[in-house]
Design a protein that fits this description.
This protein is of the alpha/beta class. It has helices spanning 56-72, 80-91, 99-119, 123-127, 147-159, 174-188, 204-216, 231-240, 255-262, 273-276, 279-291, 304-310, and strands spanning 3-20, 25-38, 43-49, 133-141, 164-168, 194-197, 222-223, 245-247, 268-269, 296-297, 314-319, 332-334. The strands form two sheets. Strands 4, 5, 6, 7, 8, 9, 10, 11 and 12 form a nine-stranded mixed sheet that branches. A three-stranded antiparallel sheet has the order 1-2-3. β1 and β2 form a beta hairpin. α1 packs across α3 (99-119), α2 (80-91) packs antiparallel against α3 and α5 (147-159) runs parallel beside α6. One of its GO terms (biological process) is carbohydrate catabolic process.
């Protein structure tokens, strides 16, 4: 089986309901879709969410179409790690981290989808499943919501059967965070997991100050308290706080996780499929974390659920509110049964 074609299409449109975190407004739905065809008639596809800027999906598509796709024509699509390495070398001079990683991830996911479809099995079975259902929490506590809106959406998430919820912090003074955390805790109860996410908003001193307060509310973890690349800061913060530090979504490739994990700077590792490089890199990051006894929770859902099924250290899949027709079972999302990467849109 050989790769005979790669096609890319994009969409970009305003969000019906823009959402806000501590540093940015996410007001667009941009998607880049990649399809890989073979001479056996089997195809694989991926869909990559990309962006706040209208032109962003088209910029990524240009990299895939003009640079990455020509390099994999004629290749055996089942040699996924070999193709990954080839594309990493190809993009090294311009910088593999960044847009190149998004493109490599899109190809990596399409290749896994293709392999699963060629063997008529879901990808999680190819990765060696550890479990058949993933505990889920709802990321619903965005900062554009007032307290009443925050309470409503968190209550809805619990009614849908989620284990717990995550909320954004850092958009205002600490007193505002406390007010919002108290409101959510009153809605979800004293025992449900409550995660807080600062989206890299703080410097070390402020992260330490706020982290000590978040601990008082028994928050499950403190996510992205510092700029993503500040490994030293994460290590120092983890030494001072009891609350686990969760981070990883803005790190590119598995090498960026090595020192962070080995030095104890992360208590919950959270790669992002797009930035890490795809299912292949996320799986390897997760296994590296497992070797150090660090739990793994996805950034986002979708195709990531296949990796979560395979890792021994998985604790959660992240989701928004459930789409119509989807139900959790005992707070868990069941794995897809269709061949390839067919999965829920988390």
């Amino acid at each position: 089986m050989k790769i005979t074609g790669v096609t890319v299409d994009v969409t970009s449109e305003p969000k019906a309901h823009p959402v806000q975190d501590a540093i940015q407004l996410l007001d667009r739905n941009g998607v880049t879709r990649v399809r890989i065809d073979t001479d056996d008639g089997v195809s694989g596809e991926s869909a990559t969410y990309f962006g706040r800027v209208e032109s962003s999906p088209a910029v990524m598509a240009k990299i895939v179409t003009d640079q990455l796709a020509p390099a994999i024509m004629g290749e055996d699509p089942t040699v996924i790690r070999g193709i990954r390495r080839k594309l990493q070398v190809l993009t090294d001079y311009q910088g593999t981290a960044g847009l190149s990683s998004y493109g490599i991830s899109a190809i990596d996911q399409a290749l896994w989808d293709l392999l699963g479809k060629s063997l008529d099995v879901p990808v999680w079975k190819l990765l060696g499943a550890q479990r058949t259902a993933i505990p889920a929490y709802a990321m619903v506590g965005w900062l554009e919501l007032d307290v009443a809106g925050l309470e409503r959406v968190c209550a809805q998430a619990m009614e849908q059967g989620f284990h717990g919820v995550k909320m954004k912090v850092g958009g205002g003074p600490l007193t505002e965070d406390v007010q919002r955390i108290k409101a959510v805790r009153n809605v979800i109860g004293p025992d449900a997991p409550l995660m807080v996410d600062a989206n890299q908003a703080f410097e070390y001193g402020e992260a330490l100050r706020r982290g000590r307060v978040y601990e008082e509310f028994d928050c499950r973890w403190f996510e992205e308290p510092l700029p993503a690349g500040d490994t030293d800061g994460h290590v120092r913060l983890a030494e001072k706080l009891d609350i686990p530090i969760a981070t990883g979504e803005n790190r590119y490739g598995q090498a960026a996780f090595r020192d962070l994990i080995a030095r104890g700077g992360v208590g919950v590792v959270q790669p992002d499929l797009r930035r890490a490089g795809g299912l292949t890199d996320c799986l390897e990051i997760g296994l590296m974390a497992a070797g150090f006894g660090v739990p793994y929770a996805s950034h986002g859902g979708g195709a990531h659920i296949h990796v979560l099924a395979a890792l021994p250290n998985t604790i959660y899949v992240e989701s928004g509110l459930l789409p119509k027709g989807v139900q959790l079972v005992d707070g868990c999302y069941p794995l897809p049964t269709e061949p390839g990467l067919s999965s829920w849109d988390g």
